[in-house]
Design a protein that fits this description.
Elements lengths: L8 H25 L6 H23 L3 H29 L13 H7 L2 H10 L10 E2 L2 E2 H21 L7
Antiparallel strand pairs: 1-2
């Protein structure tokens, strides 16, 4: 059975890229079809998914030898774990008691037009009261919790390619 799912790192990186694009498509669906406006932390998580997907796509297109696979694997894991850190912050905000939730900030359009870039990035990474609202759940877990699980799986998939030597081209 294990032989049936044993792929080259190139195929695994391509599958990781497709997974990232699926996550972004789901985010677009929830935003544009379901009408759920993303908060600053949601947008930050999307950017981390995009960055992880780009690392995976470049790795799949490049099809490097072992040294390159290791570099791409570590880079993919770093971007995925950065996204996981953002997701952890988001889940933490959602579990705060209502009296401890930070105040809601201005809309992202306003922030992008009127605040310096450093302040905008700080807001996007720290979150606002909007980020504490749970709009959607599946099996009792919010969207940021599912995104955290996805980031951890992507980081694991990425790092496993370092060990995936048997089937890659040496």
């Amino acid at each position: 059975m294990w032989r049936l799912i044993k792929f080259t790192p190139r195929v695994w990186f391509l599958l990781g890229f497709l997974g990232c694009m699926t996550l972004l498509a789901m985010g677009a669906y929830f935003q544009f079809v379901q009408g759920l406006d993303p908060c600053p932390l949601c947008i930050s998580q999307r950017l981390a998914i995009l960055a992880t997907g780009m690392v995976f796509l470049i790795a799949a297109l490049h099809n490097p030898k072992q040294k390159g696979i290791t570099w791409y694997a570590v880079s993919g894991a770093v971007t995925a774990l950065s996204g996981a850190a953002i997701s952890i912050r988001h889940v933490w905000l959602q579990h705060l008691p209502p009296e401890d939730v930070p105040e809601c900030g201005p809309g992202l359009d306003y922030v992008l037009q009127n605040l310096p870039l450093a302040e905008t990035i700080k807001l996007m990474l720290s979150g606002t009261g909007d980020c504490a609202k749970v709009d959607w759940t599946l099996f009792g877990f919010s969207m940021p919790a599912w995104t955290l699980a996805a980031f951890l799986m992507l980081a694991t998939l990425s790092l496993l390619q370092i060990l995936n030597r048997e089937t890659n081209q040496s």
